[in-house]
Amino acid sequence: MSEYKIPILREMNRTPEYLFWVGCAGAFDPRYKKVTQAFAKILIYAQIDFGCLGSEETCTGDPARRAGNEMLYQMQALQVIETLQRYQIKKIITICPHCFNILKNEYPDLGGHFEVMHHSTFLKKLLDEGRLKINLEKLKNKTATFHDPCYLGRGNGIYDAPREVITGSGIQLREMKRNRSFSLCCGAGGAQMFKEAEPGHTEVYAERTREVLSTQAEIVATACPFCMTMLSDGIKKENKDEEIQNLDIAELILLSLH
């Protein structure tokens, strides 16, 4: 799958079954662009009818609302809703829990009613339906721990899907002591990503990184761009970036495909 073309809505002249909502990190962050590409390749592999907005996609407004700028949030959200309704979008898949949460739970207050799925749930669906041919031998000797994103886990109760995706790729899962509803935040949610750290004896991401390393897993699997950024920084700070990989669950699935 070295060459592939992403379908763009304005070029399709029809409404696909799913809109792949890329998100700001998936579009602009060099590391998370690789996650976007991995998930898009999986959608193409599974022959999913999807499209992307391309340059017509803008921020959902989530960081603005979390930072307290309600006016900016509503301006951005209403613009997004207008675009989605113009294309008659009904189903949305996103690789960002923050986009997932606001599109699913907060947009309805402004008239945006869509069926929204996080890519962890969608990947599990594809595995359950047998649409992904996994070679369990490729990653069977690898070990991974999973960091629960706050907006996916505690925010929306999605704990099992990402874990089933990880084990479905053939990887052995090692849990951190604090996991699921007791999981520690990466330190970037609620717009904390965009502000300086407050006074304290340690950074949240540094504390979580130590918990990752305590599992002695070879991979820390993530399912959120904020979590990936913070844990990658933590791993580098501990000088462990040559020993442990930080990979999104979509990247694990892509690596395990026939």
Count of DSSP H/I helices:
11
Assign the CATH architecture of the largest domain.
Answer: 3-Layer(aba) Sandwich
CATH level 4 superfamily of the largest domain: AF0625-like
Radius of gyration: 18 Å
- CATH class label of the largest domain: Alpha Beta
- Give the strand line-up of the largest sheet: 2-1-3-4
Structural class: alpha/beta
What quaternary form is this? single chain
Uncertain stretches:
none
Characterize the main sheet. 4 strands, parallel
Mean pLDDT: 95
Shape: globular
User: Total strand count, please?
Assistant: 8
Distance between the termini: 11 Å
CATH T-level fold name of the largest domain: Rossmann fold
Structural notes for this entry:
The protein is of the alpha/beta class. It folds into 2 domains: about 10-125, Rossmann fold; about 135-255, 3-Layer(aba) Sandwich (Rossmann fold), CATH 3.40.50. It contains 11 helices and 8 strands. The strands form 2 sheets. Strands 2-1-3-4 form a 4-stranded parallel beta sheet. The protein has a 4-stranded parallel beta sheet with strand order 6-5-7-8, with helices on both faces. Helix 8 packs parallel to helix 11 (about 250-255) and helix 9 (about 205-215) packs across helix 10 (about 225-235).
